[in-house]
């Protein structure tokens, strides 16, 4: 495959999760000896294509340790950039996260000749502004969706046509524990709210508990159970789910995929009323501090967008922040970094109930958190 626009030592960015251009990544891996020193900025990866041994010629960095990135991190070949998601666009544009070449998975063009970014935009939008070269994998198995931007043939320096199933993220049915937590969280979400939902099985289970509700959606991730809501407006950075989600989003005018500057930007979030942020965590302590990054010494999460959304929800008229997690993850003292400070503490939910920490003293916070930890 022709990758002639890539030079040794170039900085590359490509789509994450379901938006990963698998054929292009496979070609890069196969040619890596000739492209030694290329620096790859990764998002979350679930294809498993990149392996620790590929660091013999390639250099890896990422904002997260989720999915297959965990194996790279634990092998010591993945450098973590602990930046909030809202800063990624600015970091790309400033050159602090360099991008010489961007690799895309795009849909087949519509009747107007417009190629859609299909399953993910996010930091690809600023990368497109800065890249010297753009390589597109036109995959006829991904949906045409309303993305900002849409592209034309002239925007690509190289193009390869493929037909292969995109990466899927099947959550499956929620466990009994996840269902119990979801049932505790659902009553806090009022009809007509705008909901944000973090990645993972538990936030997705909470959306399942809200099935049929009239809610708008604004998040970094559009996960599987969003399609069960009655949404009139759905804005996200990427679709992460199964074929059922992709088919729901196909040419759906209610769904827009946009840059992380839009999905996570303070100016955008500040205009949303009744904004409810639903996230999970690796662990929380009795004062409301949140670790969303490190578990048992391994980097498994991210700074990500949680803090961006939680702050926006706390400022939004009628808004609130919900952090849902199993009671076993409520701890006396965090074992990892503080990803969300206790000053932003809102509502914490476990299978034992909810603890509303808004306006509470530290002593009252501890009492309420102990009650939902099951160790009161």
Q: Tell me the strand order in the biggest sheet.
A: 7-14-12-10-9-15-20-22-23
Number of domains: 2
What percent of residues are in strands? 15-25%
Average pLDDT metric: 96
CATH superfamily of the largest domain: Glutaconate Coenzyme A-transferase
Q: How would you classify the helix and strand content by structural class?
A: alpha/beta
Radius of gyration: 20 Å
The CATH topology of the largest domain is Glutaconate Coenzyme A-transferase
Instruction: Note the main sheet.
Output: 9 strands, mixed
Instruction: Figure out the total of helices.
Output: 11
| Strand elements, count | 23
Low-confidence stretches: none
Classified by CATH, the class of the largest domain is Alpha Beta
Describe the structure.
With 376 residues, this protein is α/β, with parallel strands linked by helices. It has 11 helices and 23 strands. It folds into 2 domains: 11-162, 3-Layer(aba) Sandwich (Glutaconate Coenzyme A-transferase); 176-373, Glutaconate Coenzyme A-transferase (3-Layer(aba) Sandwich). The model has no long low-confidence stretch (mean pLDDT 96). Helix 3 runs parallel beside helix 4 (124-130) and helix 5 (176-185) crosses helix 6 (201-209). The longest helix has 12 residues, at 362-373. The chain has helices spanning 22-30, 69-74, 88-94, 124-130, 176-185, 201-209, 243-249, 260-263, 266-269, 306-315, 362-373, and strands at 11-14, 39-42, 59-62, 78-80, 101-106, 133-139, 146-147, 158-162, 194-197, 216-218, 221-223, 234-236, 238-240, 255-257, 275-279, 283-285, 290-291, 294-295, 298-299, 320-324, 330-331, 347-350, 353-356. It has a 9-stranded mixed beta sheet, sandwiched between helices. A 7-stranded parallel beta sheet has the order 4-3-2-1-5-6-8, sandwiched between helices. It has a 3-stranded mixed beta sheet with strand order 17-16-21, with helices on one face.
């Amino acid at each position: 495959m022709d990758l002639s626009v890539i030079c040794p030592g170039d900085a590359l960015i490509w789509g994450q999760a379901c938006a990963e251009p698998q054929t292009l990544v496979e070609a890069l891996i196969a040619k890596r000896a000739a492209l030694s020193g290329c620096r790859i900025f990764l998002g979350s990866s679930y294809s498993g294509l990149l392996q620790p041994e590929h660091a013999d010629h390639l250099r890896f960095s990422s904002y997260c340790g989720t999915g297959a990135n965990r194996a790279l991190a634990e092998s010591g070949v993945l450098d973590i950039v602990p930046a909030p998601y809202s800063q990624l666009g600015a970091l790309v544009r400033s050159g602090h996260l360099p991008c010489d070449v961007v690799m895309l998975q795009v849909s087949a063009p519509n009747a107007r000749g417009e190629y859609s970014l299909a399953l993910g935009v996010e930091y690809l939008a600023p990368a497109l502004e800065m890249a010297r070269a753009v390589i597109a994998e036109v995959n006829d198995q991904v949906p045409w969706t309303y993305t900002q931007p849409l592209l034309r043939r002239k925007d690509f320096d190289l193009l390869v046509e493929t037909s292969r199933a995109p990466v899927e993220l099947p959550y499956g049915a929620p466990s009994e524990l996840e269902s119990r937590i979801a049932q505790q969280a659902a009553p806090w979400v009022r009809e007509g709210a705008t909901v944000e939902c973090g990645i993972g099985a538990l936030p997705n289970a909470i959306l399942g508990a809200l099935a049929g509700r009239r809610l708008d959606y604004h998040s970094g991730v559009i996960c599987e159970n969003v399609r069960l809501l009655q949404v009139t407006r759905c804005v996200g950075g990427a679709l992460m789910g199964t074929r059922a989600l992709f088919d729901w989003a196909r040419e759906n005018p209610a769904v827009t995929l946009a840059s992380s500057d839009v999905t996570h930007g303070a100016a955008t979030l500040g205009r949303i009323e009744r904004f409810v942020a639903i996230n999970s965590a690796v662990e929380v302590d009795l004062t409301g501090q949140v670790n969303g990054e490190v578990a048992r010494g391994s980097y498994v999460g991210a700074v990500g967008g949680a803090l961006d959304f939680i702050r926006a929800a706390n400022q939004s008229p009628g808004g609130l922040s919900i952090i849902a997690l199993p009671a076993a993850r409520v701890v006396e003292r965090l074992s990892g970094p503080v990803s969300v400070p206790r000053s932003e503490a809102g509502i914490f939910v476990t299978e034992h109930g909810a603890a509303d920490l808004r306006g509470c003293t530290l002593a009252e916070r501890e009492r309420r958190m102990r009650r939902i930890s099951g160790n009161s």
